[in-house]
Amino acid sequence: MKSPARNVALLALASLALTLQARIAQADTVLITGANSGIGLEFAKEYAARGWTVVATHHHDTTPVTLAALSSRYRNVRVERLDVTDAGQIQALASKLENVPIDVLINNAGVYNDHGNWRTQDFGRLDFALMDTIMAVNVKGPLMVSEAFVANVKASREKKIINISSTNGSLTEPLPGDGAIFYRASKAALNREMQLVALALKRDGIIVVLMHPGAVLTERQAYLRGKYPGMVEMPFTVHHMIDTIAGLTLKDTGRFMLYDGSTVPW
């Protein structure tokens, strides 16, 4: 016959197990495109540490070392392949996640330049094949991904679509030189298209915003550390963006904002 103390202990363990199961079932889910490096990887790390279920996507043929390490460390990280320019891959993943509510969808995947060479976006040296790539990833990709997963977002509690943009796409801010034509044009297009998406989805209670993370010292920009004032570290801006995302309401839909939630003119 079991002792009363042992019965109490077993009941406590059972209660704890049920509580943990309930927490897992109620865990919010975030899907992040371009999660294998830079801002996307930092988002995946922080959301994972906060206990969210993280669907971290990448476009490579094999799982990047960064995401393999992250999924090994956190059981709540799920790594999936997703080229945001490939409609077939997008639909395949959407089918795979058909019954998974996605609380926050982060359209982060982006192309900046040709392996660090900005000159191919200078007028007179324009590489139009690069323009096709940038527009496909930065403009078409977020639209296709948002449309494919909108039912998942609608079925969630948070109902948020976040798009990583840039003040480089501003139509009102002073122009910082005449280069990076493709990239800057792509961010202006992203801002406008997502404002229209925000208007279309407002009736469904879905919040769509654009965020400027600041001048971020990503892996590719690390060599600029200490050279220019105002540049920010990835953990700093991502931490603030996640806090800002958490506080978004339907009143914010369509806004273009800085990582701290302040409005950015564009």
* Arrangement of strands in the largest sheet: 3-2-1-4-5-6-9
Number of helical regions: 7
Q: What's the CATH class, please?
A: Alpha Beta
What structural class do you assign from the helix and strand content? alpha/beta
Gyration radius (Cα, Å) is: 21 Å
Full CATH superfamily name: NAD(P)-binding Rossmann-like Domain
> What CATH architecture label applies?
3-Layer(aba) Sandwich
Instruction: Domain count, please report it.
Output: 1
Q: Overall pLDDT, averaged?
A: 87
Portion in helices: 40-55%
Terminal-residue CA separation: 74 Å
Would you count the extended β strands for me?
9
User: Per DSSP, what share of the residues sits in E-state strands of 2 or more residues?
Assistant: 5-15%
Which descriptor suits the 3D outline? globular
- Detail the poorly predicted runs: 16-25
H/E element sequence: HEHEHEHEHEHEEEHE
Report the biggest beta sheet as strand number plus sense, adding barrel if it closes.
7 strands, parallel
CATH topology: Rossmann fold
Explain this structure.
There is one protein chain. With 266 residues, the chain is α/β, with parallel strands linked by helices. It has one domain: Rossmann fold (3-Layer(aba) Sandwich). The chain has seven helices and nine strands, in the order αβαβαβαβαβαβββαβ. The chain has helices spanning 4-26, 38-49, 65-73, 87-96, 128-154, 181-201, 234-246; strands at 29-32, 53-58, 77-81, 104-107, 160-164, 207-212, 216-217, 232-233, 256-258. A seven-stranded parallel beta sheet has the order 3-2-1-4-5-6-9, sandwiched between helices. The longest helix has 27 residues, at 128-154. Mean pLDDT is 87; it is low at 16-25.
